[in-house]
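[job 0412] stage=fold_complex status=start
inputs:
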Amino acid sequence: MSDWVEACEAADIDEEDVMRFDHGGRTFAIYRSPDDEYFATDGLCSHEKVHLADGLVMDDIIECPKHNGRFNYKTGAARGAPVCVNLRTYPVKVDAGKVLIQIG
Amino acid sequence: MTKAMVIIGAGECGGRAALVLRDLGFEGPVTLVGDEPHLPYERPPLSKEAMTGEAPAIKAIASDEILAERSIRHIHSVQAVAIDRAAHVVRLSDGSALPYDKLLLATGSLPRKLPMPGLGARCVYLRTFNDAKAIHAHLRAGNRVAIVGGGFIGLELAASARKLGADVTVVEAQPRILMRGVPAEIAEIIHKQHEAEGVTILAGQGISAIADEGAEVRITLAGGLEVVADLAIIGIGAVPVTALAAEAGLAIDNGIAVDAELRTCDPDIFAAGDCCSFPLAVYGGRRVRLEAWRNAQEQGALAARNMLGAGEAHAAVPWFWSDQYGLTLQIAGLSDEGHSVVRRDLEDGAFILFHLAGDGRLVAASGIGPGNAVARDIRLAEMLIAKRAKPAPEALGSQTVKLKSLLAA
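[job 0412] stage=fold_complex status=done
writing structure:
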């Protein structure tokens, strides 16, 4: 199993918002849901490789800033044209005020 | 009883409609008719990513496998030549006939032709993938490219041509670039960026003559200037493809006229995307025609739902974007509905202009900045416009007030 990586402070992300996290040449998106849970997905949209962290979070949906493709960031499921390929998700935990993600 | 669905036009709109019919569980025959030889593909990259790579590549909306898996019959390289409304049959250029229960016209638009003599093989237009391939072959260092028309297509092509090293001159008859739908403050940023990248922009210069002879094109401007180029790309707007509908007796009004459910005056025939004009609910039913990728996609999906009887009215707010160099412009709504403007500055020089109607209602938002700097706020503005919100101008103009908080109000 791979290690947990510290991504940011839990307080760095507003509720119902998203933040970009780069690590080891890869890019991720870390989400804080309206009910204060944290999630992580691949950082780039599966349609045209745009950073999802520039997009809008609404409930459990992240919307791509470029073409409004939608994903459920909790499951990675593609939720609307033009996206049809799901996002990979990663386990997340909050420990002592830090958000950690497990990068596989 | 199983119904047959026929879609004329295999672009973003038609392709999307076919997929959505299946998403909704429709099990009868779905036939998609296109006059190009390709799979349904996305057109926006043609002036941008496809134009700057080694060789243009198709970005398909649906692969052959997806079409087969979803039992969508794609008839390519064929034109629909007539609709027999009484018999519910579409006749095709290969002599065959397709019976339909519901028909969707997603015939799109074609480049507006420059109405003057003298145009030859070195004067080209961009609409299709094949057009893009032909243009791409000319974009290289040392080649001179003249672009007629300072609209989105022309300016995106100018940026792509510069990226490949060509010398670029843009000729625009209007006093400035992007006269249609883009505020002057934003057009100026784009103008300066093009000049910084080495593009010559000649605005306010009508064309008095074109001579396309031998190895070059000579464009003579009304003021006497002459632009000499190896290739002239003409991007002066688009006209809806309506002949098929008109000949079938359907109402035409700046495009195939449809109601809020995208239905033509024949209840079994729908039209969607660039080819249709429709009442825009968010502006009190003002009839518009939009030439935009997202509109094509949304209307294709809406038409599919209504072909299956959803009876759903169009409610979306117009939205479009353009990428040039590292800049992205996004506009939600129609800025000509506005009477006053509030500016909101964001990071990295990005900014958004909010357009307010006389009664304080937010009617449009135009933003520009590097990368996707304006995307989130433009999206929120779009939602505010859809809600017919009247946000306080001070709040819109203040960086410290989150737009999301205005949405909840």
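[job 0412] summary: Chain A has one domain: 4-102.
[job 0412] exit 0
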